[in-house]
From TrEMBL:
<dbReference type="InterPro" id="IPR056934">
    <property type="entry name" value="SH3_Rv0428c"/>
</dbReference>
<protein>
    <submittedName>
        <fullName>Ferrous iron transport protein A</fullName>
    </submittedName>
</protein>
<feature type="region of interest" description="Disordered">
    <location>
        <begin position="63"/>
        <end position="82"/>
    </location>
</feature>
<feature type="domain" description="Histone acetyltransferase Rv0428c-like SH3">
    <location>
        <begin position="13"/>
        <end position="63"/>
    </location>
</feature>
<dbReference type="Pfam" id="PF24551">
    <property type="entry name" value="SH3_Rv0428c"/>
</dbReference>
Length: 82
């Protein structure tokens, strides 16, 4: 039986923003970004740091997440609270 998180990834459209939790030595790690590819053994998530290949056998959780919030305006010297 396939893990429900893997089933979600298989059914998700490429380009969906996801967070994927995988097992690593000593614990777990998360990849947050856009699903770029998936095959029988791996999926690729585009994070802020670049493309991350994840083994589906190590996936323990995955879900769709909303788009990131818009960037906050920069404060300039002389602005209140700036």
């Amino acid at each position: 039986m396939t893990h429900p998180a893997v089933e979600f990834l298989i059914g998700a459209a490429l380009g969906t923003r996801v967070v994927v939790r995988t097992r690593i030595d000593g614990g777990y790690t998360d990849a947050l970004g856009y699903l770029r590819s998936i095959d029988a053994t791996t999926c690729t998530v585009e994070t802020k740091r670049g493309l991350v290949d994840l083994a589906l056998a190590e996936v323990v959780a995955a879900k769709e997440v909303p788009p990131p919030p818009p960037p906050r305006p920069r404060r300039h010297v002389g602005d209140p609270l700036g």
